[in-house]
Amino acid sequence: MPDEKKLCLRTSGLTKVFGIGRQKTVAVDHVNINLCEGEVVSIVGESGSGKTTLAKMLLGLISSTEGEVYFQGNKRDISSQKKKQEYWRNIQAIFQDPYSSFNIFNKIDSVLLDCIHMRGGRKLPHAEKVKLMAEACSFVNLKFEELTNKYPFELSGGQMQRLMIARIFLLKPKILVADEPTSMIDACSRATILDELMQLRNEIGMTIIFITHDLGLAYYVSDSVYIMEHGKLVESGSADEVILHPKEAYTRRLINDVPKIYEEWDLSTV
Amino acid sequence: MANVMLEVKELTTKYITRFREDVYAVDHVSLKVEEGKSLGIAGESGCGKSTLALSLMGYYFPPLHYTSGEIIIDGRNISGMNPDEVRKSILGTEIAYIPQAAMNALNPTQKIIHFIEDVIQAHDLYVTKKDNYERAKELFETLGLPAEVLQKYPVELSGGMKQRTVIAVSVLLLPKVLIADEPSSALDVTSQKMVIKMLRQLMEIGLISSMIFITHELPLLYNVTDEIMVMYAGQIVEKATAQEAVFDPLHPYSKGLMGSIIVPEKGLRDVKLTAIPGVPPNLKKPPTGCRFAERCKFVRPECTLHSIPLYEVGGGRAYRCILSEKELREAYAREAYENAR
Question: Which domains does chain B show, CATH number per domain?
Answer without folding.
Answer: 4-103+176-340 (3.40.50.300)
